Amino acid sequence: DGVIEDSIYLNDTVVITEPVEKVGIIIDIGTTTVAMKWLNLKSGMIIESQSFFNPQGKFGSDVIARIDFDNRDNDHKLGELIIKEI
Fold it and tell me: Cα-flanking dihedrals φ and ψ of residue 5, to 5°?
């Protein structure tokens, strides 16, 4: 029926405890910061938001440097860093 009845966790912390019909997540991967928002898709209300430093920063200060790094046989390491953090 599309209703979430269990808790939703983020980094071992409960962020949603009440039943929500449809939940969506927006992820903005910026050069320095990754921002995330969880939305109740029925009401449009923001349920939770969080941001953290982009872990890709240690591999280049700009997007072009990071693409260059990732293209040099690094097995998609930069994408895996983001997925691990999320």
Answer: -110, -15
Q: What is the pTM of this model?
A: 0.69
Give dist(CA 10, CA 62) in Å, integer. 28
Domain that holds residue 32: 1-53
Rounded mean pLDDT of 53-58? 92
- Whether residues 2 and 42 fall in one domain: yes
| In a shared domain, residues 3 and 45 | yes
Mean pLDDT across the stretch 17-36?
A: 84
Q: Are 7 and 22 part of one and the same domain?
A: yes
- Least confident span in 27-31, 34-38, 60-64, 69-73: 69-73
